[in-house]
Specification:
mainly alpha; 2 helices; 43% helix
Length: 79
């Protein structure tokens, strides 16, 4: 039994964002004759895009520098 369900997509579970990438056989890189390396690259790119979209939707900072910049913007002017 899988640990996560499609309904968990975009949720943070155990400190990780769950991302489900639905692929049909026609969408699969293998169906178009892509190599294993190209398939991994396509999967990684899709996962990264989903993570960035989820973080943007939830206004989650992606790194320490982003969080620092956000805090600077939230400070009242003149401080």
């Amino acid at each position: 039994m899988p640990k996560y369900r499609p309904s968990d997509d975009g949720k943070v579970i155990e400190g990780k964002i769950v991302v489900f990438l639905p692929l049909t056989r026609a969408d699969s890189p293998r169906a178009s004759g892509a190599s294993a390396a190209q398939e991994r690259q396509a999967t990684a790119a899709a996962a990264q895009a989903a993570t960035l979209a989820s973080a943007a939707r939830d206004a989650v900072p992606l790194c320490e520098e982003c969080e620092k910049a956000r805090r600077e913007l939230d400070k009242p002017k003149g401080s």
